[in-house]
């Protein structure tokens, strides 16, 4: 990982673009960018999630370990989308292992600092939680569709 | 006085009936008529007038039929029993083809039996209507059932007007009786001492002349008319039909369907006794060695669980879905399809329902008439409190509204073009692509989105989308999922198979001219879209941006992997792929296919969309497309439904006014209206 305190512009991301101007400035102070090589592990399932991440460029895979099958990718996250929502939502443990599948740039918001800001500022909280909720609802809807396993084979067929 | 004119009725004394039977026999006609058998008045072969049910009638009520002696000599004093004339015109089992398969080579030969001359004696008004109704379905449409047409042409119709309707009868409401006005050769009305007889066709006139009857005197003619009028009076008008089709469709989401389903056994008795029900399946009757099999057309019923089964599941798993299908087809969408009611009011389904479900009462419970009409006609009320709630107007639109262009005439039994496997390519663990060489001009004239029926002797013919057209052949991509598709997948180079088609209406390629194109598909749904991609790329300049979005279960479940890579490398085509799950060696996207819309611009108002996949995937995709501004008339989906015949005769794939095999499988959303994605259709 290549990390630096020098951040890109939060406002250029999907997440940042939706935040009120004043709050954006405050959050920008907690943001930093990070770059990962293909194959790099960004987060490990069960570990503490320290940062809320926004994919600026690249693609990351959310993987779950299934002992008899190995690592299974259940979702990929593309540029503009978030990872590490557990940095905001207790118990702050990562629900999947996050791997950069191609060279990936993230913008990271320090989780502890972000939580402090959210507790202190209802206007910021409303904006951040709404964005998070939309992102998670989208992910939940998609997960349900995947759960249906619509493309699976049926063996009990008329022909 | 000798009768020669059809305009003047004659009088046939009861003792003269045998003379009529003798004349028919002399013409080489087998005579089928009413007789007492199996505890009912049934239709069977009649040799003498003494075979007729003289002095018998039957008391009928919902779920009840009891023969009763009348103490008279009258021979036609019964109302219709459990058999109908379709047993003769449309027998429960008819051999269609004999297929043979030896050393990988198939042959098919026509197995239709001959249709010798026959006379039907004692046909009621409602039953003539039923014959005319089946004519419209089986012999007057764009596809013709040759066996039915031959049997109908071979049948002389001798009607006997009904003067003894049962309590279950409602021909008066359906406009089919008790008077006999059309569709007969001879029509008789029974009096105590004989019959008033008139001719309704040249064949009937000739028969009447040979009977050498005296003219019926005015007293008898009037008595005959009065008897029929009295029967009409007795029945009343128990089912107000004005506006009934629209009311039924509006009640598509009525809670009443579930209530009926609590009583309905889904036993299919109603469809078996119904004189118009025409749905059939094809049964394979095989030799023990499997080399030879006869494909038989057999009665089927929309009440059976397997009726609407398809590769991905079953479209009508619940009894309430199946009851709704039956009732709405009979009384509503039959009008859309054939310009007439599918019910003739004979009441058989009421009598022979083992739990006594009365279709008259259910119609009024599901789709009650306006109060004024109800008061005017004194309808039959259900024998229990109803729980019908009003239906929101959103559900009231017609199921399928747009006019459907009609393809060429097809016939049953099918003729299969023997076609040889030229190449076999494995796509996934259970899917192969077969390339067939053929010079059959019909097969070669296919269009993207059309399908063929692929037949191997001893296996059900399978509807398979064409996955590529070549100048001298075509490709089929087949997933081994059932017995027939497994056998097809096992074919080797040089083996032959019977192909028929291409069938149905494919993708409208021209609709995309000058527009952006987005193709969204999943799983094996890519197969029917591949010829569309071929067609678009063959004429690339006619179209603006083209995007192909493809979802699969896993990377290994994708079809045409190398081809997709080649397509993805093209500068004039944007290919997005996504899988539901993947191992660590997959660097592409994981998620649902609609997620692919998040990247890249979609100029919705200027786009045309083609969608193929499981229906649930298509509904999710359509939501996104609509959200992006693609209009319903520019969103095309292909529907999967159970198909046995492929030409709109077997009834399995009926959906609203369409048969999916014949009028689809591609429809625009605008054509489908609220039928798209609705449960239980």
What's the structural blueprint in terms of helices and strands?
The complex is a heterodimer of chains A (159) and B (681).
Chain A: E1 2-4, H1 14-17, H2 21-28, E2 31-36, E3 41-43, E4 51-57, E5 59-66, E6 70-78, E7 82-83, E8 97-100, E9 104-110, H3 111-120, H4 122-148
Antiparallel strand pairs in A: 1-2, 2-9, 3-8, 4-7, 4-9, 5-6, 5-8
Chain B: E1 10-13, H1 17-26, E2 30-37, E3 40-45, E4 56-61, E5 64-69, H2 86-89, E6 93-102, E7 105-110, E8 118-123, H3 125-139, E9 143-145, H4 146-153, E10 155-160, H5 171-174, E11 186-191, E12 194-199, H6 202-211, E13 214-215, H7 218-235, H8 244-250, H9 256-263, H10 269-273, E14 280-286, E15 292-299, E16 309-310, E17 313-314, H11 319-338, H12 348-351, H13 359-366, H14 371-377, E18 410-412, E19 417-428, E20 431-437, H15 441-444, E21 451-455, E22 462-470, E23 473-479, H16 483-489, E24 496-503, E25 516-522, H17 526-538, E26 546-552, H18 561-569, E27 574-579, E28 589-590, E29 607-612, H19 615-627, E30 635-638, E31 654-655, E32 658-659, H20 660-663, E33 666-668, H21 669-672
Characterization of the model:
The complex is a heterodimer of chains A (159) and B (681). By secondary structure, chain A is of the alpha+beta class. Chain A has helices spanning 14-17, 21-28, 111-120, 122-148, and strands at 2-4, 31-36, 41-43, 51-57, 59-66, 70-78, 82-83, 97-100, 104-110. The model of chain A is unreliable at 1-7 (pLDDT under 50). By secondary structure, chain B is an alpha/beta fold. Chain B folds into 4 domains: 10-94 and 109-235, no CATH class; 244-396, no CATH class; 410-503, Elongation Factor Tu (Ef-tu), domain 3 (Beta Barrel), CATH 2.40.30.10; 509-675, Nucleotide-binding domain of ferredoxin-NADP reductase (FNR) module (Rossmann fold, 3-Layer(aba) Sandwich). Chain B has 21 helices and 33 strands. Chain B has an 8-stranded mixed β-sheet. Chain A binds chain B through residues 38, 59, 61-63, 69-76, 78-81, 99, 101-102, 142, 145-146, 148-159, and chain B through 306, 309-313, 430, 459-460, 462-463, 479, 481-485, 522-524, 551-553, 557, 580-584, 586-592, 594-595, 598-599, 613-614, 616-617, 620, 642.
């Amino acid at each position: 990982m290549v990390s630096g305190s020098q951040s890109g512009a939060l406002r250029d991301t999907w997440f940042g673009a939706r935040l009120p101007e004043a709050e954006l400035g405050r959050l920008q102070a907690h943001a930093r960018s990070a770059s990962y090589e293909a194959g790099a592990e960004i987060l490990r399932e069960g570990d503490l999630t320290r940062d809320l991440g926004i994919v600026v460029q690249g693609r990351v895979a959310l993987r779950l370990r299934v002992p008899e099958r190995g690592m299974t990718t259940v979702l990929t996250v593309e540029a503009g989308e978030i990872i590490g929502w557990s940095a905001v939502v207790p118990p702050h443990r990562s629900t999947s292992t996050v791997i950069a599948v191609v060279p990936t740039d993230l913008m990271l918001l320090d989780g502890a600092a972000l939580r402090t800001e959210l507790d202190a500022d209802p206007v910021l909280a409303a904006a951040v939680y709404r964005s998070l909720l939309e992102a998670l609802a989208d992910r939940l809807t998609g997960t349900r569709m995947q759960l249906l396993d619509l493309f699976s084979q049926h063996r009990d067929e008329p022909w | 006085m000798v009768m020669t004119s059809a305009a003047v009725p004659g009088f046939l004394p009861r003792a003269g009936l045998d003379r009529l039977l003798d004349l028919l026999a002399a013409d080489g006609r087998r005579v089928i008529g009413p007789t007492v058998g199996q505890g009912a008045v049934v239709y069977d072969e009649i040799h003498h007038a003494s075979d007729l049910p003289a002095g018998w009638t039957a008391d009928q009520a919902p779920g009840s039929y009891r023969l009763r002696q009348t103490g008279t000599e009258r021979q036609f004093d019964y109302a219709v029993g459990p058999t109908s004339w379709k047993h003769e015109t449309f027998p429960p089992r008819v051999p269609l083809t004999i297929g043979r398969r030896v050393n990988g080579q198939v042959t098919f030969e026509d197995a239709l039996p001959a249709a010798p001359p026959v006379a039907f004696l004692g046909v009621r008004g409602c039953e003539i209507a039923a014959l005319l109704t089946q004519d419209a379905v089986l012999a007057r449409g764009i596809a013709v059932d040759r066996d039915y047409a031959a049997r109908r042409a071979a049948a002389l119709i001798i009607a006997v007007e009904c003067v003894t309707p049962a309590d279950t009868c409602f021909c008066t409401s359906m406009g089919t009786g008790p008077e006999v006005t059309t569709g007969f050769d001879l029509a008789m009305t029974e009096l105590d001492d004989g019959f008033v007889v008139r001719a309704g066709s040249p064949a009937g006139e000739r028969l009447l002349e040979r009977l050498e009857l005296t003219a019926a005197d005015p007293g008898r003619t009037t008595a005959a008319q009065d008897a029929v009028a009295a029967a009409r009076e007795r029945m009343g008008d128990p089912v107000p039909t004005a506006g009934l089709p629209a009311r039924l469709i509006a009640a598509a989401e009525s809670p009443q369907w579930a209530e009926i389903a609590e009583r309905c056994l889904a036993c299919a008795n109603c469809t078996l006794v119904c004189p118009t029900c025409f749905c059939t399946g094809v049964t394979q009757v095989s030799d023990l060695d499997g080399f030879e099999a006869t494909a038989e057309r057999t009665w089927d019923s929309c009440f059976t669980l397997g009726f609407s089964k398809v590769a991905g599941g079953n479209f009508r798993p619940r009894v309430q879905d199946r009851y709704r299908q039956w009732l709405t087809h009979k009384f509503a969408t039959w009008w859309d399809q054939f310009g007439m009611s599918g019910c003739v009011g004979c009441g058989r389904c009421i009598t022979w329902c083992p739990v006594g479900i009365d279709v008259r009462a259910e119609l009024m419970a599901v789709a009650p008439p306006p109060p004024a009409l109800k008061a005017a006609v004194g309808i039959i009320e259900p024998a229990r409190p109803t729980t019908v709630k009003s239906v929101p107007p959103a559900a009231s639109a017609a199921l399928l509204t747009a006019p459907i262009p009609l393809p060429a005439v097809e016939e049953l039994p099918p003729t299969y073009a023997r076609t040889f496997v030229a190449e076999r390519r494995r796509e996934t663990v259970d899917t192969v692509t077969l390339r067939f060489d053929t010079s059959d001009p019909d097969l070669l004239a296919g269009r993207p989105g059309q399908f063929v029926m692929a037949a191997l002797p001893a296996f059900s013919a399978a509807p398979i989308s064409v996955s590529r057209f070549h100048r001298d052949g075509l490709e089929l991509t087949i997933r081994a999922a059932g017995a027939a598709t497994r056998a097809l997948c096992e074919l080797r180079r040089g083996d032959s198979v019977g192909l028929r088609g291409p069938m149905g209406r494919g993708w409208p390629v021209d609709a995309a001219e000058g527009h952006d194109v987005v193709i969204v598909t999943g799983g094996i749904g890519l197969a029917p879209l591949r010829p569309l991609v071929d067609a678009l790329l063959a004429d690339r300049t006619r179209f603006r941006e083209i995007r192909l979005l493809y979802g699969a279960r896993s990377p290994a479940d994708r079809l045409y992997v190398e081809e997709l890579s080649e397509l993805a490398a093209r500068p004039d085509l944007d290919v997005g792929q996504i899988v539901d799950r993947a191992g660590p060696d997959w660097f592409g996207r994981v998620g649902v296919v609609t997620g692919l819309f998040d990247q890249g611009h979609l100029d919705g108002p200027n786009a045309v969309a083609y969608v193929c996949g499981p229906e649930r995937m298509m509904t999710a995709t359509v939501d996104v497309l609509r959200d992006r501004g693609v209009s319903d008339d520019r969103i095309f989906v292909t529907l999967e439904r159970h198909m046995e015949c492929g030409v709109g005769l077997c009834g399995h794939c009926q959906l609203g006014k369409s048969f999916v095999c014949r009028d689809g499988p591609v429809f625009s959303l605008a054509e489908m209206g609220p039928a798209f994605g609705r449960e239980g259709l």
